[in-house]
Amino acid sequence: MASLQEDISKYKEQFKQNAPEEKQRLMAQATKELEASGVAQGLQVGDEVPELELPDATGTTVSLSDKLSEGLVILTFYRGGWCPYCNLELNAYQRELKAVQEAGATLIAVSPETPDASLSTKEKNELEFTVLSDEGNHAAKRFDLVFPMPDYLIEVYQQSGLDVAGHNGNEDWELPKPATFVIDPSGKIVFAEVDSDYTKRTEPSKVVEIASNY
């Protein structure tokens, strides 16, 4: 079974070969600028998480505190079902779902997409874990993950036929940084990984190991 990092490396090589050089340059520039800006550093190990109450793909409200009352929660924020790296990550978590459950943890994925878009992502990837819709990035902002996309990157996306704002049901053009947290039943973060580079994702097996050893 391929690891997430292997899947990402394969996709990056394809992108490098197929995407126009100017597009690659501008996307890399946006990543470097975001990293240098220092914005959206994310909550850290030892922080208490805020309460989240968000609709799942069917519109049913899910409470983070309710899930924590059942045990550890693995909470991962992704950009949307339009993002190939996010889909690779979600599929990798699906492959590890049995191990997550055996570790006594609940897996929750959150994006700023509308519930309808989240449902499409869940069905397309045949995901059997909870996928929540954080319209307006309200939850992601409380986790200090949200940044505005620069105008030139918006233009690159639009030229590629990608309407991020439409997926999110607004005109904000704001995204969360990809982030993964392991949260103990008391609501304290015991593992946190947040990256300005959207191509870098936490290996699910690493998170499972942390949950298993908790």
Describe the protein in words.
It is an enzyme of class 1 (oxidoreductase). Its EC number is 1.11.1.24. Pfam families: AhpC-TSA. One of its GO terms (biological process) is cellular response to oxidative stress. One of its GO terms (molecular function) is thioredoxin peroxidase activity. This protein has 214 residues and is α/β, with parallel strands linked by helices. The chain has a single domain (4-212), classed as Glutaredoxin. It contains 10 helices and 9 strands. The strands form 3 sheets. The protein has a 5-stranded mixed β-sheet. Strands 1-2 form a two-stranded antiparallel ribbon. Strands 6-7 form a two-stranded antiparallel ribbon. Strand 4 (105-111), helix 6 and strand 5 (130-133) form a beta-alpha-beta unit. Helix 1 packs antiparallel against helix 4. The mean pLDDT is 95.
Give average pLDDT, whole number: 95
- Secondary-structure element string: HHEEHEHHEHEHEHHEEEH
Specify the CATH class.
Answer: Alpha Beta
Count up the domains. 1
Catalytic activity: a hydroperoxide + [thioredoxin]-dithiol = an alcohol + [thioredoxin]-disulfide + H2O
Domain Thioredoxin: 43-214
Protein name: thioredoxin-dependent peroxiredoxin
Biased composition (Basic and acidic residues): 7-21
